[in-house]
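protien #1 (seq + structre)
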Amino acid sequence: MPTLSDLGQLPKRLVLGRPVRSDRLGESLLPKRLALPIFASDPLSSVAYATQEILIVLTLAGTAFLFLAPWLAIAVVLLLATVVLSYRQVVRAYPSGGGDYEVAMKNHGQFAGLTVASALLVDYVLTVAVSVAAGTDNIISAFPALDEHRVAIAVGLVALLAAANLRGLRESGRTFAVPTYLFISGILVMVVTGLIRHFFGAGLDAESAGYSITPEPGYDQVAGLALVFFVLRAFASGCTALTGVEAIANGVPAFKPPKSRNAATTLALMGGIAATMFSGVTALALAADVKYAEHPCDLVGFTACETEPQRTVIAQIAAAVFGGPTSLGFFYIQAATALVLILAANTAFNGFPLLGSVLAQDRFLPRQLHTRGDKLVYSNGILLLAGFAALLIAAFGADVNRLIQMYIVGVFTSFSIGQWGMVRHWNRELRAEAGPRARARIRRSQAINAVGGSLTTVVLVIIVVTKFTHGAWLVLLVMPVLFMLMKAINRHYSHVAEQLVPDTDSRMLPSKVHAVVLVARVHKPTLRALAFARATRPDHLTALTVNVDDADTRALQQQWERYDIPVPLTVVESPYREITRPVVDFVKSIRRDSPRELVVVFVPQYVVGHWWENLLHNQSALRLRARLQFQPGVMITSVPWQLESSVGREDTGLRATGPAPGDLRRGLADEPEQTPYG
């Protein structure tokens, strides 16, 4: 018959499935066909909004500068190719999964390493928020009536993603592989079909092709340095196409052997596919004369701008290519795009927990982030990421245009520091290598990373300057806060480690052992505690009770004599009817009189079979344990007594009788127990 504990575990098992043994970790490693959709879904899906972001900026000045879009797209593709080539060097040199963080820490030192870590942690949260918000946008493009439920839809999708990832890496990989491949095939078919129609004169007009755009104030006469700044801002927006490239470098341990080679191959595949789709979508957007404005009512001709959301760029292209917003092709592209954008957040759900685990191992984040959950994934990191992303979505109303202004600052910070770290890495390799062929290979890799570092540093400056007043300032504020938090956590762990280093005193045996058994009444738990204490053969043994009621204390003394217990009963007075303070003072007095004497306090405890039984017993022993644990030279020993309700429940996973699989991992062994001391 199912127990209350079984029912309590039911929701968890429905979400996570059965726990996985630690020795099956190798079975969760990924082949390239699954690694591509898991780790590369973010850069692949960014084609759904990267072109749109370029157009948003260019149309601030009306339509006069739309001719720059293809040149900006070419610049983004060249940058993407450079970054992909650079990261292929990273995964070969640092296959342990630390990515840019490990590169920066080993080649630049702690300051640079924590700067990269704080940048990536912020950007992973933004990846989830932006991807899910963009996916929600595409759902609304197909079904405009859902616009008023935008935030609820986005937060619900984050929760579903977290649940899928909590089920385990390979399971989530299978979940995400199909939509990613459907999206890739759908976009490529759309690009080929659209280009054929365009070049053969079949006509390719977006629904917004007939609209004109009212320039924003101050942008109608852009020239000189203002024009340069304007173009650079558009380029910076298009660089969102590069987000997620670093996730493969962080996820190398999740690949099947040979890990580095498979990760490098996946990077190359991702770069080629992403560049092809981004170029094709940009070409179709210009061919179909798509108009997209930051404020829909700036589109002259869009009469329903106050009541209806404007369709995304990719939705307008799909409608133009496949025959309108009611065609099967349109709904296929919208469904695939929405799915892959939502699932693109999976890049962060894999990268954030892995990075958090590395940081926790290095003592810069809480150690709980280094612990694997029931499904051999870093569940604490997954839950933390989901929580922060949901808060961000709610705070910004799931608005892609507002969220994306904070995006990619962290990515290019890590890009830049990581690439210059690789240049230093190759310098060290050159000093240790004498063979001419190996030196030539190292110099080639160094040149790739130097070019990558130069380009990404320039782009980082452009992004910070052009996006600072549009939201990037918030990221630049949060990053130092995270940096200082990680430093503080590291100081704490280091200080604790220093305190725990063995010294001469800690290796010396205590001069004496003084056992103290807490007595509430004469019953089986008390007699067992006394027997156990005597079995340890202490130098002194004290049976201690607190006098809070004279009549009860006299009755206890009479029972003590009647049972002829061979240990004197010591009574401490408590005129204010306290229990905790007199016991603590008594223990302190022992330590004060003999500082090298070890005091062992034996606390009888009930073991119950039902949670509600804990509520029916006095909680004074909990306060005693809480106070005594702060006393130096004092040990607390629990002596359990199993009540009838606990019989036969040792396999039910109840906390009262023992931890369930994984409970010790989650720290349940540290929870206070109910005791009969009273």
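ok now protien #2
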Amino acid sequence: MMKKKTFFAGIISIVLLVPGLLLAGIADTTQLKAKPVFGKEAKVVTYILDNNHYRKIILNDSLSSVILDSYVKNLDNNKTYFTTTDLASFEKYRQTIDDMTRAENVTAAFDIYGAFRKRFVSRMDYIMKNLIHEKFDYTTEEFYETDRDKEQWCKNEQELNEVWRKIIKSQALSLKLAGKTQPEIEKMLTERYERFRKSILQFNSDDVFSLYMNSITESYDPHTNYLSPKAADIFKQSMSLSLEGIGARLQTENDYTKVAEVIVGGPAHKSDLIHNGDRIIGVGQGEKGDIVDVIGWRIDDVVKLIKGPKGTTVKLQIIPADMGVNGPSKVVQIVRDKIKLEDQQAKKSVIHYEKDGKSMNLGVITLPSFYMDFDAYQKGDPNYTSTSRDVKRLIKELQEQKVDGLVLDLRNNGGGSLTEAIELTGLFIKQGPVVQVKNSLNKIDVQTDDNPTITYNGPLVVLTNRFSASASEIFAGAIQDYHRGVVVGESTFGKGTVQTVIDLKRFINDPDEVGELKLTFQKFYRVTGSSTQNKGVTPDVKLPTALDPQQFGESSNPSALPWDEIRGTLFQKTPVINDRVISNLNKSYQDRLKTDKSLAQFVNDTEEVRESYRETKVSLNEVTRKKEMEEAEKKKASRTSLNTTLPNKEIPSSDLKEMDDEYLREGLFVLGDLITTKIG
């Protein structure tokens, strides 16, 4: 019921991190007050943002209004605590947050939070007294809207009571359909809300200030964040990949903890048991441990349960994403581990394919990230591992196996080293600019590949999905702009910005600990001058997707920096790909849609899942809800694999037509078309 925040259960991604709030100890349970150092931090952060953020906007009355709305939403994301009367009382801050912040005044944060806390306690009391033990009538036809953004704020307590009646009724019905008796339902709901009350009442002044400051910083863009002292420590740990867990990035969405990203090479990815968009509703320890209900929990508390020592088992009760809001839950077990460098390294395989009497061997290189072993490099180890070195070696091995073409699979590659993205591009082009980097002072730096050697000049397909981001987008964009290869798949994430971390201790001399500021200060542009920000890279051959850009990717965040263009830089296109080639490849794809039953089924299944994502109402009628759950299970059982992400295991050398990875299969078909038309 808090803002959508993201955390990692085991590892935090530098590329896509949005820090969450961290519980800083036992809170003062009477009245929370600002520490004197908070005002100093707020003033310094504002100064840095005004003068150094890429966006070059100033904290003024207009931005104050945005911050107020953001802070209110962060506190009451579901519109289930505040009334319109409360909102009216906050209006005095709408155009004054800028002036207050520069005056080292953070009163607004604690005044508004105080109102939230009062409403929260009142709601919890009402739930415990009036709703937990109610015998609901599940024969009436009524619905609960889970997407509260579609609903208006409640005018009074009576309207709040009705919203909460539906919330508790929906949760009780879910438990009933899971086989729980009425006493068990009442016990579970009581424990759930007692735990929730305890969690919120442990909020202390550091937590309130952190939430408020992130409402300010994220009004500039979603990747600019205030890191409290404890959050900064977690961020530093993540840089060394020292955390152990399941290898998944989590975020809060409404009442649920949602899997935002499964990290390639981690335990979750290897198990293939959880996927992007799955909702975690319970966590248990060990194979025999009881499942603890985590609906409504703070994200950091859920992460604490999921994280744990390497080799131990965690049980997760999840609602699979492709089952929609009406889907049944299931329990999976994952053994915790560290994500090792070797799990992130590039791997190769060879797929056999015959078309029009021509026998072909198609090479595939899967690339989970743009990595470099900096420690080994700094120690002078001549055999240090890096993306470009590994891919170069794999290409030579594939050439010895006489492959006719190559697919470079960048699905779920969230980025990494910019240098490695440039070096990798250099393996496929003679030489020239790869990316332009523009800073907040409008200075443009053109980063180039200066090596005239080409490692591979044959037919090339780059496979992307919605979670290919940052460095992946730079590489895919360069290959597309140089007409060196064909990009196939989904439009990429759209993260075309660069962040740096600033320690506020440099500006504040105070005995109290101060935090850090993660600041967006640069933006990526392709050699054509087009930004990768927000729009990402659009494939030459678009494959079906269940993911709505308004729900997934950079464009899903209203404060994301916009797409724009700068002047292109001079570069030499190759004669390999042209508009006619792209047109023919898309025609072949459309022909396969008419004749390939597997592809047609994949498209149909994708549309079904897309529709399930859009459905946000749940029935509070037992017969209807049960029927919807059964239908969701039947549809899932009949579907082909809808996972557009990187496979969780090495691809076996096999016949292309028998492959069950529909995205890779289609990418290889496109590669086959390139080869048979003697392109490259």
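The first strand starts at residue 6 and ends at 8.
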